[in-house]
Amino acid sequence: MISSTAWISRGLAARHPQKQELDDEELARVSHLANRELVDATRDLRAAEKGDGDGWEDVESSGEEMEEDTNEDPDDLSRYRLDEYDQEPSQSIALGSLSQIRGVSAYRTNEDDPYITLPNDPADEDEEREQLEVLPTDNLVYVSKTEDELSMVEAYLYSAQDQSLYVHHDLLLPAFPLHLEWLDYAPAPVSDAPNQRVAGSMGNFLAVGTMDPEIEIWDMDTVEGVYPNAVLGQRDNTSSLDAPAGTGKKKRKIPKARVANADYHVDAVLNLSWNRQARNLLASGSADKTVKIWDLSRPMSGTDSKALRSFDAHTDKVQSVAWQVSGAGMISATANPAVLLSGSYDQTIRIFDTRMPEQALIAKIGADVESVRWNGWKNQSFMVAMENGVVQGFDARKLSSTPSSDDAQFTLVAHDSACTALDISPHIPGCFVTGGTDRQVKVWSMDDEETEKPRSINLVTARDLSVGKVFSASFSPNDPLTVAVGGSNGKLQIWDTLINGGIRRTFGDRLRRMNQYSDHHSQPVAEPRLDDDSSLADRTDVVQVDNDAESDEDMEE
């Protein structure tokens, strides 16, 4: 399944990504960090195999009755398993095929390995370099994916010119990924790590929130990465936290309880938001019911990194966080880099200045929050997608510190089931997209440019893109009406909605006013007319890796 997507604007990724090269000091550091995790995993494995001792306690039965004893044959010796007495217990099965290998040595490069005698072919290196090249006209789309219990981030290269989409490179993750957040700010290097970028330098980085309490930040201009550039949290303190109980009659005693604190998360990181104005700040929402602010300019020490600020105003999991933003072309409305929006399973929305969190504004909603988004086109406005399929819009200036369910400016029943994806176009005012577990992706038009409340909200087009239940839908940063969609079947789809006639008729005037249409197709061809279907006849609206996938017809309203 695909749980999250993140677009990268054209020209921001390195044209020629580099493979990670480890010198002796960096190799020793990474090996030390990896060995600590291996030691913890080995300890847990041995404890699980032992399966007895003081680490177990009785748990009440769930009502299942014990099987009654049956009459046994006194001459039946099979229960004593005499034929297995000469077999010694072994852990080789649990450790896999590597347990049979002795004296394994690892080398940084093939040149250092004495068993590799063939030299590298320069032609092969040139071919590989060409395959990894990212052109200035290409976008990268990062996708968090889990398949057959293997979790990873896949970097897709998307060319709008050629309408091509393929996996450029990937990296493995230690836990189930929940959210991706792109940032251009290089985090402060670990204090003992050599040859890392200076904190704050421009780059191409990805923050990853997973079921683990830590946040990993990876340099995505490096392929075949071994270890993240930064880890936000304290893995030493969270590695021994309790895990979900099993289904047997007994369970292991809890070494440490998941008690929230001000320094680091102790449960899954559900959402992330990077501050594009105060570039060193990253916000996170967690299942431990807290919101934390991380200062990426603060040097790490080993694997430890403490949060700059922590807020515990919510009483349930914090599902979504968002720094205040402004859309392209906005003049009067400017974003306040200190204002943060958060939504929780406690069915409340909170807006607060991170410098004065006690003065929060609160909105009460009727279901669990799935996603929150600021509307950059209207000052102080934001939208909320909920578990019951409803999308509501609010004006922060109309809220107070007392929760109320009557503060919404509009209520839209967007989907028949949970509305799990929401994004507001940064290019076109009044355009937003939703996705739900009903497998539908919908593009909406909101007419509210000159009024406090929207005069109308209309469904422009809806589509089943064959991605299963939709978990992510996000607008391209370059092409105003192109959307990346991912869902439960693990397939990424790039939907160019401009092919749809209803989209062109609805948003054509706004595209012209924003002077964005000329940038929609970067290739030097004649600009198609917005009211002419024939000019787009040779283009397909859905670009996918699997070209054999079928998609449903558009529905216009």
From TrEMBL:
Stretches with biased composition (Basic and acidic residues): 38-53, 517-541
SMART domains in the cross-refs: WD40
GO cellular component terms, A-Z: nucleus
Acidic residues bias spans: 54-75, 547-557
Per-repeat ranges for WD: 262-297, 412-454
Keyword match Membrane: no
Annotated region described as Disordered, given as residue ranges: 38-77, 517-557
The keyword DNA damage appears for this protein: no
GO BP terms in the entry: rRNA processing
Domain of life of the native organism: Eukaryota
Keywords on record: Phosphoprotein, Repeat, WD repeat
InterPro entries: PWP1, WD40/YVTN_repeat-like_dom_sf, WD40_PAC1, WD40_repeat_CS, WD40_repeat_dom_sf, WD40_rpt
A Pfam family it matches: WD40
The protein, known as: rRNA-processing protein
Annotated source species: Malassezia yamatoensis
